[in-house]
Amino acid sequence: MNLFEKERNYEQLVFCRDEKSGLKAIICINDTTLGPALGGTRMYPYQKEEDAIIDVLRLGRGMTYKASVAGLDLGGGKAVIIGDPTKDKSEALFKAFGEYVNRLSGKYITAEDVGTKTADMAIISTMTKWVVGLPGKSGDPSPFTALGVFHAMKACIEEVFGTDSFAGKTVAVQGIAGGVGYHLAKLLAEAGAILTGTGGRDKEAALRAGRELGARILESGVEPDGKPHPELDQIYDVECDVFSPNAMGGIINDLILPRLRCKIVCGAANNQLWKPEHGNTLHQKGILYGPDYLVNGGGLINVYHEIQTVYPQGYDKEEATAHVEKIYERMKLVIELSKRENIPTYLAADRLAEKRINETK
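The chain above was modelled as a monomer; its predicted structure follows.
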């Protein structure tokens, strides 16, 4: 694997190993032009170490663009811990990881992500101050991520249907039992949307969410042994107004694209497009795509408000919420640029993000 390939550009890649705790992690600092690299720590049982490297590089780049397009004075980074979050977590492991974060002296700031929680961040914070999303401060960013997705989806609904009302709109929610997916589904249900969902590994949690929210629950994309298998997910075949991916990335690909029966793709998952050309295909099919790093920026915006050097008066939840709701306006701006230049929305969002970064260099 050539880590210096142009399409995988990054500033720094840190391999973290601690034999005693079993820690195997990778930190990617993608770009610090706009500020320190902020991005969550994901814990996932990658089958191959190369898969973890590819994921952290893609995620780090996404965070750079996410911060830029949101207008934040932050760079992009990400970390992945190789392990099963249901059985491999320990205090020693997170303390060892915290030591690695601390050695970077603020160049990388971490937060929770898929497979980690605020309690894990609290352990990391005993070893470093470079962590946000802590209990008693901004806390769990998932509800804010969901809020941002909701407002981006509202902008997409308005563009396609001429109204921003969710009443009677059908939304297929992949990851309905997840931290972000559940909060998003709750907002959609309250707004009158008709929901269909799948929940990944935890079928019972998905069924509970379905009963609470009045959602129809389908079989998830897992193999008999419980390992994720996205292609098996029935959610792609649902005829709906909006398909909302809120689980793992790379699901807009050659295998899935022919199965989609929606008018809009808008969800919280990172790196939804396996390759840029899949965004081109969505555009050609007339499916409006909400660029993932723009749509799911609410969590990042929220923890940004926690950073004391930026907001010396302290964290203000109302101020953070109002900032997250502006994702609606940024989604509208991307749609307008896409229409004006006749380019896919992912490319329009890239241009806005890159313009701000290049102007700062």
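The two ends are 30 Å apart (CA to CA).
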